[in-house]
């Protein structure tokens, strides 16, 4: 079973690939998708699908700000060396995920996924909405997965 530490390590890799030194909720989501989360898999959300939805959300945000991109996003600038640190959205997702576990040591990637999905606003909700994902159903499925872990 994948641990939270492994998810955070993978999320740091996702952040580096994005050219940032900050791990955010969408990096955690991508890391969870890499583990083959049953909830995400059942919803048809694998890593490439989520990456595409997140990239499209980023393009939409740039477009809203008046920046138009033709074609694919440019490659990320490599971040400075060092380990990426948890950003505000990742910390909030972790706090929400920990709050759903009976005990802190019982927290699983499914609890973290639930914490990510419970965010009412932000990059992840916009990307999932853009991808046509029923966030309520996905959140309910993640909640069921947390109870199945016990």
From TrEMBL:
- Locate the region Disordered: 66-106
**Top-down, what is the taxonomic lineage of the species of origin?**
Bacteria, Bacillati, Actinomycetota, Actinomycetes, Micromonosporales
Identify the Pfam families for this entry.
Answer: Clp_N (PF02861)
- Please give the organism: Paractinoplanes tereljensis
Query: What Gene3D superfamilies does the database record attribute to this sequence?
Result: Clp, N-terminal domain
- Designated name of the protein: Clp R domain-containing protein
* Residue stretches making up the Clp R domain: 3-60
Looking up InterPro entries in the UniProt record yields: Clp_N_dom_sf, Clp_R_N
